[in-house]
Amino acid sequence: MxxxxxxxxxxxxxDFGGTKILAGVFDAKFECIxxxxxxxxxxxxxxxxxxxxxxxxxxxxxxxDLDLKEIIFAPNLGWNDVPLxxxxxxxxxxxxxxxxxxxxxxxxxxxxxxxxxxxDVVGIFLGTGIGGGLILEGKLYSGFNRTAGEIGHMVxxxxxxxxxxxxxxxxxxxxxxxxxxRKIKEAVKEGQKTLLTEMxxxxxxxxxxxxxxxxxxxxxxxxxxxxxxxxEYTGIAVSNLINILNPEVVVIGGGLMEQLEDEMLAIIVETxxxxxxxxTTKGIEIIATRLGDDAGITGGAVLARKHxx
Length: 309
Known about the structure:
Shape: globular
Oligomer: single chain
Number of helices: 10
Strand order of the largest sheet: 3-2-1-4-5
Helix content: 40-55%
């Protein structure tokens, strides 16, 4: 617990998405000293969700016996055309800073896990979709229109499945959790046998990433093949990024990687090395983040600290 002199150095990061809102209070060393989690309830509309974000922040602050007036707040940005900054500043009476979720995750991994030592880092986050972040020359890179890092929408297969963005064959449409689940459900409808139907029923309701790991460990070769295919696409994406940016570290996170690191990471690394141009991979590390679900809130705290310096 921070002393009186350290209280002004506390920052709070918030990670919110379609299903959950996670808030964490961090001290000057970016150690999490209080946290709270609530469901998003996205179907209730923006005003309700903004109120729930504020509630989650207050619960995290209460947990570590601090006063909200002593804290700088930084959530990641999950919406377009919603006055999130303005509304949260009104509710919390504190400065609020916003950034894209995967940019924030990359920033958190870079500053806290990698100790800001590498100069160039690419973050890839495999979850419901696929996002990314770029640290170039030690700084978060946003690009001309502040849209840099949309790694999930690089096209890997021109005639591939349609992506939510409207294009065909995007990385996200081939290797995200949504893409994997779609492939499995389509195959089951066509008669494919899998242990997943024994575990969850024929409609595969409530299918989660952890279920894939359980099925593979029980010897389900079909699920293993689908996951390996996603890992290969991820490796190809990594090789493209190495060829273009030549980063010192490629760090991979997200819920899919958190659940399936043992099944995916080695394939990702091997594929990336196979597809990258000769000589481009020397000394480059391809690793899985250890921050897990805390990458977003950690990055939010780093963002708040940077804006307050």
